[in-house]
Specification:
Blueprint lengths: L10 E8 L9 H10 L3 E9 L11 H13 L4 E4 L5 H11 L2 E3 L1 H12 L3 H15 L26 H36 L4 E6 L5 H9 L16 E7 L3 E7 L9 H6 L1 H8 L3 E7 L5 H14 L7 E6 L10 E4 L5 E5 L8 H13 L2 E8 L4 H9 L3 E6 L5 E8 H10 L15
Parallel strand pairs: 1-2, 1-3, 3-4, 5-7, 5-8, 8-9, 9-11
Antiparallel strand pairs: 6-7, 10-11, 12-14, 13-14
Subcellular location: Cytoplasm
Cofactor: Mg(2+)
Keywords: Cytoplasm, GTP-binding, Magnesium, Metal-binding, Nucleotide-binding
Length: 433
């Protein structure tokens, strides 16, 4: 690659600031889990009570000296901050610590780079990395900021830093073009599913809430699932059969996290569009997590950012096996509509209830009944058969066609309106026996 990569181990000292404003506060336990998910060997955790960040180092100069001594004492290769550092703060800290310095965004990007498996996922991660690194290119190139003189080296030209930035811009443009192509292909696939009226159910939720475990339990697939943050990056789609609904596409997506870097939301927009175009969202929640309410709010914040906050949502409280005395159940609103399902994906408890709730929510948009068609509308009859919507056929005493059908209401309206009729004009007085 054309930007400098540091070499070294992964012995890391973690730095966390307490006393931040509530909207900027980070979770120290989650930070520790992030570092471990990245493969770091944590040799020190520094908690710093600070309300007013320093412009030069983010933290005070006294704490900088303490951490510098700890870096040398523990032979650390890396210092990770649980907050966003400006490029200048990162450079200033590296100069003092004489080792790599990484902020929260850089840490998440590194985890994403390790987890991406598909070509599209790798492109999305690389785009986010290059975008992040483009402001940090000065590091390592200060000795090349001036053009060299000497025989054969005089005259017009560009510095190494300028060359590097130009190559970065070219690479970023290439990746964006490729991802645009991927987005177009996804859009075509979505249109195909829409024409076939196959509803899409998308799994969303905080990272490590158990989405992939639930996906595997529902589809009997073998998607990678582990007790670590961001185990899944690449979207996986499977077709399922639901009673009273028919075929359904189930999509597993990347997990969300508190203060998900905007660069990642932008880079993964093509993937996240699977959620924003879904017919139903399954919001998977870790029922055992003490801070689950904060995680729920963060998920809705990201859903709003991608335009999916208005979609029908069913909350799925997972990891019920860790809550003694709580049984699998469906919770409903005042109208009897399912709003919440409690289950354990790992133990397979309550999966039948989830099937039931999904079927009820998706069946709201289905027409299931008997239609009475005049003989002259044989073409309309053929169209119902071509869609696979006919469950049974018969005739009434007057010779009219009786069709027991099951199909989306929007499709029923489209077919009969072509003939200049309304759906209610075809409703049979008697059902087929």
């Amino acid at each position: 690659m054309f930007f400098e990569r540091h070499e070294g181990g992964d012995r890391a000292i973690l730095v966390h600031l307490e006393g931040q404003a509530p909207e900027a506060r980070e979770d120290p336990d989650e930070f520790l889990e992030l570092a471990r998910s990245a493969g770091a060997e944590v040799v020190g955790f520094v908690n710093i009570p600070r309300h007013q960040p320093s412009a030069r180092f983010l933290i005070g100069s006294g704490k900088v000296e303490e951490i510098c001594d700890q870096v040398k004492r523990d032979a650390a290769d890396l210092v990770i901050f649980n907050h966003t550092l400006t490029p200048s703060q990162e450079r200033n800290l590296e100069r003092v610590f004489e080792c790599r310095v990484l902020d929260r965004t850089g840490l998440i990007l590194d985890i994403f780079a390790q987890r991406a498996r598909t070509h599209e996922g790798k492109l999305q991660v690389e785009l986010a990395q290059l975008d992040h690194l483009s402001t940090r290119l000065v590091r390592g190139w200060t000795h090349l900021e001036r053009q060299k003189g000497g025989i054969g080296l005089r005259g017009p030209g560009e510095t190494q830093l300028e060359t590097d930035r130009r190559l970065l811009r070219v690479r970023i443009r290439q990746i964006k073009q490729r991802l645009e192509k991927v987005r177009g292909q996804r859009e075509l696939a979505r249109r195909g599913r829409k024409r076939a009226e196959v509803p899409v159910v998308s799994l969303v939720g905080y990272t490590n809430a158990g989405k992939s475990t639930l996906f595997n339990a529902l589809t009997e697939a073998d998607v990678f699932a582990a007790n670590q943050l961001f185990a899944t990056l690449d979207p996986t789609l499977r077709r399922l059969q639901f009673d009273d609904v028919g075929p359904v596409i189930l999509a597993d997506t990347v997990g969300f996290i508190r203060h998900l870097p905007h660069k990642l939301v932008e880079a993964f927009r093509a993937t996240l569009e699977e959620s924003s175009n879904a017919d139903l969202l399954l919001h998977v929640i870790d029922a055992h997590e003490p801070e689950r309410q904060l995680q729920i709010e963060q998920v809705y914040s990201v859903l709003k950012e991608i335009g999916a906050d208005e979609l029908p949502t069913l909350e799925v409280y997972n990891k019920l096996d860790l809550l003694p005395g709580v049984a699998p159940q469906i919770q409903r609103d005042d109208s009897g509509k399912p709003v919440r399902v409690w289950l354990s994906a790992r133990e397979g408890l309550g999966l039948d209830l989830l099937h039931q709730a999904i079927s009820e929510l998706l069946a709201d948009d289905l027409f299931i009944g008997t239609l009475c068609l005049p003989q002259k509308l044989g073409r309309l009859r053929a169209q119902f058969f071509s869609l696979g919507a006919v469950q049974e056929e018969g005739h009434d005493e007057g010779g009219a066609i009786l069709l027991k059908v099951r199909l989306p209401r929007v499709e029923l309206n489209r077919l009969v309106s072509r003939e200049g009729w309304k759906p209610e004009e075809f409703l049979a007085q008697h059902t087929l026996q």
